[in-house]
Amino acid sequence: MERTLTIIKPDAVKAGHIGDIIKIFETNGFRIVAARLVNLSKPEAEGFYAVHRGKPFFESLTGFMSSGPAIPMVLEGENAIARLREVMGATNPANAAAGTIRKLYAASIEANCIHGSDAPETAAFEISYFFPGVQLI
Ligand code: GDP
């Protein structure tokens, strides 16, 4: 069993795709271990995406991520990190495979509906970023 951090991003919340995306999590056998609704401040978005500081899209990305409510969740399942990345689809929805969340619902490379941790170390950092000190079920 492995845990990963996902975020239903502000574009997907605004467009009314919370339920659609959670349904895909459930259909694919992920167990929801924790969830919150957050409205990130710009500094909080910058802290989460610190690895991207200095990139040309950093300002725009952190502005977008703090533009409205978002839903960080911890998902659990076998090989959860890699499997969630598959279910999400490529970063740019134009390149995402059919049936993936980004192909179905994302509008652009930035407003791409969903985040998923990319490795065990980042999953650990990202889970503690949103659920510090929380005893996960
Ligand atoms: P991910 O792991 O698929 O989410 O992709 P990355 O870790 O490479 O990038 C983090 C997030 O930054 C992406 O999910 C997008 O929201 C955004 N992003 C990535 N590349 C670009 C880009 O070239 N332009 C813009 N505006 N945003 C980007």
Structural summary, described in words:
The protein has 137 residues and is of the alpha+beta class. It has helices at 10-14, 18-27, 42-48, 58-65, 80-88, 101-105, 120-130; strands at residues 2-8, 31-35, 71-77, 114-116. The protein is built from 7 helices and 4 strands, in the order βααβααβααβα. Helix 3 (42-48) crosses helix 4 (58-65). 34% of the residues are buried. The mean pLDDT is 97. Guanosine-5'-diphosphate binds next to helix 4. Guanosine-5'-diphosphate (GDP) is lined by residues 57, 60-61, 91, 109-110, 112, 115, 118.
Integer-rounded radius of gyration: 14 Å
What is the total domain count?
A: 1
Low-confidence stretches: none
CATH top level assignment: Alpha Beta
Class inferred from helices and paired strands: alpha+beta
Report the order of strands and helices: EHHEHHEHHEH
The N- and C-terminal alpha carbons lie at a distance of 13 Å
Please give the share of residues in helix.
40-55%
Fraction of residues in β-strands: 15-25%
Reported for the largest beta sheet, the result is: 4 strands, antiparallel
CATH fold title = Alpha-Beta Plaits
CATH architecture: 2-Layer Sandwich
Instruction: Provide the residue-averaged pLDDT.
Output: 97
What do we call the CATH homologous superfamily?
A: Nucleoside diphosphate kinase-like domain
Number of beta-strand segments:
4
